[in-house]
Amino acid sequence: MSRMICGVSVRGASHIRAEKPCEDCYKYQEISDTVALMAVADGHGSDACPFSRTGAKVAVNTFCSVVGGLLANFSDNTELLITYLNREGEVKVAKAIEEEWKRRVWKAHLEHKREVPLNPDGSQKKTAVYRMYGTTLLGLMVLPDFLFAFQLGDGDMMSVDAEHVEPIVETDKILGTETHSLSSENAWKNAVTAVHRRDRDCSQLYMLSTDGFSNSHASEESFWQTCREYFDMVQENGFESVAENLKGWLAETSELGCGDDITVVMNYYDSQADVHE
């Protein structure tokens, strides 16, 4: 089975018109021929979050660092790693991601010599600093036999094969423009995780995307249909062709849709391809 990964962020049509920057970030790491990490983050971009793009960049790096560390710790026992993630994904792993993100944000804030708000007693108000970097985070770890998914805030993680289109993580959709954030106190409590076994005999496309992608569709069914079409195009035209055209397609999606930034990371596994070690 061969693997191909690509990622693209496009500045939203409304952001271009308003001369606002893209607040999304993504990262993927090919740990080995069989293991990959993927992450996307959407900085809130509000007046209260002036450094949210930095927060998003820190978020994707944090996911890869924390989960990469787990991979190293359990490198000799995949089944033990699955057990640990099933038991501790939404608590210990989520706490570790929140704590590491906040540690890195605090360090960056001080290194840039930015003002630190004070509490009435004169102590540093770290919660106010974290809020300035507010962001969502979606992360996926894919191994040969299973995958681990982490989600805090809005966005979508989809799995597509010849028979199914389905979300990797089931989340409670928040109505309106509000979303959960890494900057919140006890943010880990709002994280959702999932562990799924994989079928190695089935070609699969995993898609991580910020909410600008799904929000540019009229309905959930329309969004799922687009995910199906991407899978079909990969199989018909090749992954490289889709990767080359992805940025233009997403820019058009934003222009015709909600106008928000859109980030998509795609990870395709071809069960039919010959793999030469």
Outline the structure in words:
By secondary structure, the protein is α+β, with helices and mostly antiparallel strands. The chain is 39% helix and 23% strand. The strands form two sheets. The protein has a five-stranded antiparallel β-sheet.
Layout of helices and strands:
Elements: E1 2-10, H1 13-17, E2 24-30, E3 36-42, H2 52-73, H3 78-111, H4 126-132, E4 137-142, E5 146-152, E6 156-160, E7 165-167, E8 192-197, E9 204-209, H5 211-214, H6 220-237, H7 239-256, E10 262-270
Antiparallel strand pairs: 1-10, 2-3, 3-4, 4-5, 5-8, 6-7, 6-9, 9-10
Largest sheet data: 5 strands, antiparallel
End-to-end distance: 11 Å
Q: In angstroms, what is the radius of gyration?
A: 19 Å
Q: What's the order of the H and E elements?
A: EHEEHHHEEEEEEHHHE
| Tally of DSSP β-strands | 10
Structural class: alpha+beta
Strand content: 15-25%
Largest sheet, order of strands side by side?
A: 1-10-9-6-7
Mean pLDDT: 93
Helicity level: 25-40%
How many helical elements?
7
> What oligomeric state do the depicted chains represent?
single chain
Weakly predicted, low-confidence segments: none
What general form does the structure show? globular
